[in-house]
Prior knowledge:
Distance between the termini: 43 Å
Low-confidence stretches: 321-346
Shape: globular
Strand content: 15-25%
Number of helices: 13
Amino acid sequence: MKVFLGVDLGSVSCNLALIDADARLIARQYLRTAGEPVTAVKTGLARLLPPDLAGEAEVCGVGVTGSGRQLAAVVLGADVVKNEITAHGAAAVFACPGTRTVIEIGGQDSKIILLRDGLVRDFAMNTVCAAGTGSFIDQQAARLGLPVEELGRRAAASDHSIRLAGRCGVFAESDMIHKQQMGYPLDAILMGLCESLARNYLNNVARGKKIEGPIVFQGGVAANAGIKKAFAGLLQQELTVPEHYDVMGALGTALLSREEYARDPQPSRFKGMDYVQQGNFVNRSFVCSGCPNQCEVAAMQREGQTLACWGDRCRRWESLGACAPKESHSIKPFAQGRETGKEKTE
């Protein structure tokens, strides 16, 4: 059975999707990154491809996206590496043909994607303030001692809302606490929180954008009924939440890897389950003193060999890591903690 793997590695979650040759979703995983992205990828892959399925499946393509896509590409051996805009747009068009606007809110950032005839025509992202992301909702749910799912349900069930400051996460939290101390109903405050997030999104991320239906709402925050209700009220339009709203980035890259294979059916670069599961992957970093830039270089090593480097402006180490470097290139700088710039590069 030919299958195609998609991985969306973000700061909060690691999402995986597996589709067959007919683009049917046959397995999916959503798990928290918990500050250990490589562990999350390995765990998710083991759950997605258990031994009984792995023995029957031929991985013909691997696509990765998300803020950790470089790392995921190195660990897995990716055939397609795409930004989140492309991945989420592809998944939205596949799940909901005719989509013209995608509202995507994840744990780290939020984005809007405008589609015309199935192609991305415009987009915008917010990576500055946590007030417009899922992590802020998680923080408030934890502060109140509520499961995040219950926060959304209680907000949506409220018959009115309390207006809160929403342009800044710090001010929004302070305003919430103040309104609680004033004795306002908690459910109305929660609905106010959802509306403030939606307003923040529309006034910042979607500023100057023409939002046209059909509108698809995806990302982990799409599970929050209160925020969906807030968007619908502010936009005066209905929003569609796809069935697999929380793994759309992974689904998109799986679809894109399938398209790539259809165009050029070459063997996948996927390194295999044994390579991923049995390897000891270690993240390293060091400061290169080869020039005044003093770049902080990050690297991924497996069993003492550097697989890839990134973060250097001149790309000296990036190109080195991509060429299966020898120990003299990779181990010495990490052992010293600082690269002197005097080592000879072959």
